[in-house]
Amino acid sequence: MTPEHDIPADLIRSSRFRAEREENWKKLDELVSRAEKSGVQSLGYGNTMALASLYRQAMSSLSLARAISMDKALETYLAALCARAYLVVYAPQESIRGVTSRFLSRRIPQAVRRSWFPILLGFFMMIFGAVVAHILYRQDPSWFFTFVPGGLADGRTPEASVDYLRSTLFDDSDQNHENLAVFSTFLFSHNTQIAILIFALGVFAALPSFVLTFYNGLVLGAFVTMFADAGLGFEAFGWLSIHGVTEISAIAIACGGGARLGLAVLEPGSCSRSEALYRAGRDAVTLIILAGLMLIAAAMIEGFLRQLVQDTIWRLIVGWGIGALWLAWFLLGGREDLPDGLNADKESAGT
Amino acid sequence: MSNKTLSIHPPEGVPISFALASIGARFGGQLIDILLTYVGLILFFWLMIFTGIWDWSFLAALFFLLSFLVRTPYYIFSELVWNGRTLGKRITKTRVISADGKRLSAYQIVVRNLMKEVEVFMPIVVLFGGDLIGSESKAFMTFWMIAVLCVPLFSKRNQRLGDMIAGTLVVDQPATVLLPDLAVQNPSDRVDFTFTPEQLGIYGRFELQTLEQILREPPHTQEATDRLDAVARTIAEKIGFEGQVSPADHWDFLSDFYRQQREFLESRHLFGDTRENKFHAGKSENPAAKARPISDHRP
Prior knowledge:
Chain A is mainly alpha-helical.
C-alpha cells in the first residue's frame, strides 16, 4: 500500500480509498495482461503468489467500492479488472496426467456401470437390426442392396463368387505396412465420426441414436447372412470378431451415452430439463470418449492384426479375448478405495 | 449487438458481471475458426504435395488424421490450452466461462465441443457434401440447420445446445480502462465554488453519475461548450445558487459541484440515506421513512 504522505490530505473519502489502492490494481492489471498473453507459467513463483493476493485485494476493493463510492468509472474499472483476474486465477489447471489416470481408473468403469441399461439397449438394437436383416435376406437376397451402400459393399454382393468372397476375408499378399497405416487411420477417423454422430444425436430424445445403431445392425446382419449363405459363415464370423467385438461394443457404448442424454430430456425427474441434461452429460461424455478410445483400438486391430492373423481360430481367440479384457476393465475397475471415489464424484457433480 | 450482462458468483463471494457475447461475434468466431483450420489444412497439403517430401500413402494417412483433428479435437485442445479461447475467439475477443462461477473444467470443454459436431459440422457436410443425399434430406437438413442456429437466439443467455449441456457461457473479454478520479482537485489558483447542504440535497446518484459522464470530456467544439453552459445554468438555477457564474468558469463550477455533491451523497449513503435520484425527497415523505431518523441505526 502507498505510504500515507503521498496522498493529499484534503481528498474526499472515496478518492482517498482509490488513491491508497490504485497502485496495487495497476500491478494486478499488468500481471493479468501478462498471464493472458503467455500463460500463468510465464509469471514465475513470486509473481504468481502476488497475483493471488492482489486478486483477493481487488475483489475486496470492488465490494467496498460498491458500498462507499459513487464514482462510476471506478466501479466499472474494478468490475472489469476483477472479471479478468478471476478468469486467470480460475483457469482450468488440472494436470493432464492426473486427469487421465483418474479418468481411466475410475471414471470410465464407473460411468459404464451406471449406464449399463442404455448400453445394453444399444447392443440389443444392433442385434435386433442384424436379426431383421437376416430374416429379410433369407426371404429375398435383394434386400442386401437396400441395406448396404454400394461403397461399403465393395463387390461383396450376393452375386459374387464364393472364391471372391473368400479372398476378401483372407488377403495378405498385396498389402504392405504403409498401406495398413493408411487404412487404419481412415477407419479410425471414419468410425469415430459415426460414433460422435450417434452420440450427439442422442440429445434429441434418444431415438436417433437407436435408429442409427439399428441401421448399423442391419448392415451387419446382411453381410453375415450373405457370407453364411456362401458357406463361409464361420470364417466371416472370425473375420468380423477380431475387430468387431471392440468396434461394435464401441458403437453400442456411444449409443448408450447418447441415450443417457436423450433420457435426461425425456425424463428429467425432479430437476429442470437443462439441469438434467447437465447431470447426465458427465457420464455421457465419458462414454463417448471411451467409445473413441475403443475405436482407435479397433482400427489398429482391423488395420494391422487382421491382416497379420489369418487363421480363423486365432482371429476368434484374439477378438473375444480383447472383448473379455474390456469387460473385465468395466466390471472390476474403479471399485477400490470407494470413499475417495465418492469424493471425486461429489466434486465433479458440483463442477 | 446484444448488451445482455450476466452476473456470476466467484468463490470470493463478490458478484462480478460479464457481457454476453453477441450472436454476431459468436458466428464470426466460428467462421474464422473454420476458415483458419481448413485453409491451413489445404495450404499444408498443397505445400507437401508441391515439395513432394513424403510419398502418397503417408500423405493419405496424414490427411485422414489431420482432417479428423481439425474438427472437434482442435476446439477442445485450444480451449483447454488458452483457457476457453480458440483462435477465432481470440480474434473476436470472446471467451468461454463456466456459468456456475467455478473454473472451467476439462469436462465442460469436451462436451460443448462434441455437440459442435451435430450443431455445426453435420449440417455443413450434408449441405455442401457429395451427392449421397437426396433433395428431401437436403431440405430437411436446411431446416435442421436453421433450427439449430436459432437456439442461441431464443436462449436466455445466448447458449447453444452444447453450452446448455456443459453449463458454459460465451462472454466478451472484459476491457479495463481506469479513468482519472474527477474528485481529485488539481491545484490551481481559481475561485472555489462552495455549496450549502441544502443545495447539495437536491440531486441523487443518477444525476451525479450523469454529470460524471459530462465531465469526462472537456468541450472542444462550440457545440459542446454550449451544451456545458446549458448544464451549468440549469444546475445553478435548480439548486438556487446565489452569485454570478461567468461562462468561463462553468467548467470549474461543475467540477466543484461534482466533488462536493459526491462527498455529500457518499456520506449520506454511509448513514443509510441512499439517494438514487432527484426524486428521493418525494420518497422520504412516506410515513415509514419519516418515522425513522437518518442517524438511527437499524436494529
